[in-house]
Amino acid sequence: MAELVEHGQLYIGGELADPVGKDVIEVVSPHTEEVIGRVPHASREDVDRAVAVARRAFDEGDWPRASLEERTGVVTRIKDGIAARHEEIARMISSENGSPYSWSVLAQALGAMMVWDSAIKVARDFPYEERRDGVLGPILVRREPVGVVAAVVPWNVPQFVAAAKLAPALLAGCSVVLKPSPESPLDAYLLGEIAREAGLPEGVLSILPADREVSEYLVGHPGIDKVSFTGSVAAGRRVMEVAARNLTRVTLELGGKSAAVVLPDADLGAAVSGIVPAAWMNNGQACVAQTRILVPRARYDEFADAFAQAAGALEVGDPLDPATRVGPLVARRQQRRNLDYIRIGQEEGAKILTGGGRPPGLDKGWYVEPTLFGDVHNSMRIAREEIFGPVVCLLPYGDETEAVKIANDSEYGLSGSVWTADVGHGVEIARQVRTGTYSVNTFSLDMLGPFGGYKNSGLGREFGPEGYGEYLEHKMIHLPAGA
């Protein structure tokens, strides 16, 4: 059994403080099913304390009034601290949520560092003030920090998503209350240590592990000026409903059911090698995962065989083993959910091409085999609902028009990709698919561009100047004629 990680205090305004209550969150390894950590469960009273110190830091403190260079210096040290401890962060997250260590290093830790670094670049180039010629005279348009931010992050990529919210908020001059998921609170303590060592001023950051009830209290707190939430559609709707009582601004990054469109002229090997890691990344627990693979009916058999063979070859096992490509799901409920969807898919008439159950020899741990369904119709539940696990659908189509129609026939609109011998034509397809991000002959997420979704995939954007602007208010100052 791994050494137990225990924390008895909460980060309130950057300082360790005793919690008001005595409730504890136990972190369970998805690989061993044993307790690997314990942290305090924040209470409503703890939320009140954190919001109060964040409010004082914003209303009266130096952070929002510091120069951009001063804030950039602190944030740069946070970024450097993450880089220096990236292996420790990766191991911690893999232990918490089952993410394969090889993927954790690149996406969970170094990916988070890249988010911090990209936000610094955006902040330095951002137009904070501009002068315009108004209808009635000259005007000055300013961008100012939005205030106190509640940042609610999920368990699947906790440091990456925390960076997507914290980096722009801090650079803009906001103070933040970070609410990590109860499944993955341990890595948040590492972030707290790094932020404190970087010299983040008192009151600017609090970290409160808690469940949904306390999260709802935080989101609805009258001292919060903005909520940035990443999670499920159902939870996002609730966040929006609660925040609306105070007219609190919200950014919602929600679910996806993204389609990878393989055009008839696509190179089979390139498509398979590009789509498989994009479909089964992070054990399929990724909102941008390419979970619907659309292939031309005329080439269906060869693509089906190639995708099934590649998926079946993915190494499943201990997430801390560098050879592992698919680890366990984060919790027993997620394992049951995926196995239920596998049953539903079979009942709907889809054919299992590979996988379909628990991996042989892995009786302990919340494992599900990388599973590929063939002969899937887009009306099936497995093609329409976000499963959030290693279950992927292969859908045949007739012509290109039908492929675009299937890709768009979803309540989600977060990501997608197209695979073709003609990049220019791929861009034409990209323009027709209603998603917030899209890739041609690759799958990537660039932190200098806007990330977010259409339809039920969310509201607002993260990354790039568009995401940075979510943490700024716009003010118009009228000037006298001739000024």
From TrEMBL:
<dbReference type="InterPro" id="IPR016162">
    <property type="entry name" value="Ald_DH_N"/>
</dbReference>
<dbReference type="InterPro" id="IPR029510">
    <property type="entry name" value="Ald_DH_CS_GLU"/>
</dbReference>
<dbReference type="InterPro" id="IPR015590">
    <property type="entry name" value="Aldehyde_DH_dom"/>
</dbReference>
<comment type="similarity">
    <text>Belongs to the aldehyde dehydrogenase family.</text>
</comment>
<dbReference type="GO" id="GO:0016620">
    <property type="term" value="F:oxidoreductase activity, acting on the aldehyde or oxo group of donors, NAD or NADP as acceptor"/>
</dbReference>
<feature type="active site">
    <location>
        <position position="253"/>
    </location>
</feature>
<feature type="domain" description="Aldehyde dehydrogenase">
    <location>
        <begin position="23"/>
        <end position="477"/>
    </location>
</feature>
<keyword id="KW-0560">Oxidoreductase</keyword>
<dbReference type="InterPro" id="IPR016161">
    <property type="entry name" value="Ald_DH/histidinol_DH"/>
</dbReference>
<protein>
    <submittedName>
        <fullName>Aldehyde dehydrogenase</fullName>
    </submittedName>
</protein>
<dbReference type="Pfam" id="PF00171">
    <property type="entry name" value="Aldedh"/>
</dbReference>
<dbReference type="InterPro" id="IPR016163">
    <property type="entry name" value="Ald_DH_C"/>
</dbReference>
